[in-house]
């Protein structure tokens, strides 16, 4: 793969193109995507389209990255458990030789190239400690090499202006004139407002009527929609959900000039959490196609305009008392992001 296509998201999309379409479709067909399930629209709608249209190439190259990553995660679950067992005590952070040996054992015991590609690409997308070794295996082994992503031209969202004939313009003009005459006639026929005599007190409002006016209902906090696997692991009602923390966010691409640096401390919004990990949306100082303006940047204590990423990433959680907390978002601020 080229440098331009080396980001984690490119790896995820290319991995689906590498796999057998039958394998991808079989996994998609196994998913419960009914309307009452807890799958967000941005994930569920593209997957339902994949189930009906059977076009893996279109899904891999143009579906929202959240949907593509969600499908890859499901495909990687079983082989991930297998390779963790083969790595044993080295599972947390294997070196290249240990990972390569485990992959060879997987293939020797019946695993397919599709399963190996799925688990390696998932490790890259989720920024596992072994992500650099996974990238190396995908690049060096011919049977695992990922294809180039095709250039996808973004469809135009602007329709060409329609020409309006002189006859239609004249009809529209006549309708506007008729509407003006109708409104003028209605205002003339309306009875004139009488002036209340001086020294006459206005009618008093009955207290029972005043007390019956319902108070304004406070705005409810919107529910963060997770993928099925995220929902199984994380709690959206966790006390840290909605809090902006400073955490160690993994990079989504490998820097060949500084291979030892794989993450950076930056502010992030906690979407959901568990006892050992956080599901966050990182906050950056520069915009990008996947980032939008983070409105409350000044209130939470940031010193420059900031942008929040649409992509959710998993980061390890520290002891609550050791975390650098900025502040929690208000309900209104939260609702603008979900």
Q: What is the strand tally?
A: 6
Strand order of the largest sheet: 4-5-3-2-1-6
- Given the C-alpha coordinates, what overall shape results? globular
The biggest beta sheet reads:
6 strands, antiparallel
Mean pLDDT rating:
81
Separation of termini? Answer: 34 Å
Structural class: alpha+beta
H and E string = HHHHHHHHHHHEEEEEEH
Beta-strand residue fraction: 5-15%
Multimer state: single chain
Q: Uncertain segments of ≥5 residues (pLDDT<50)? A: 1-5, 153-159, 205-214
The portion of residues assigned to helices is: 40-55%
User: Count of helices?
Assistant: 12
Rg, rounded, reads: 28 Å
Architecture blueprint of SSEs:
Blueprint: H1 8-18, H2 21-29, H3 41-53, H4 56-62, H5 65-87, H6 96-108, H7 113-125, H8 131-140, H9 166-189, H10 207-211, H11 228-233, E1 243-250, E2 263-273, E3 277-284, E4 291-293, E5 307-316, E6 324-328, H12 331-335
Antiparallel strand pairs: 1-2, 1-6, 2-3, 3-5, 4-5
Helix pairs in contact: 1-4, 1-5, 1-7, 3-5, 5-6, 5-7, 7-8
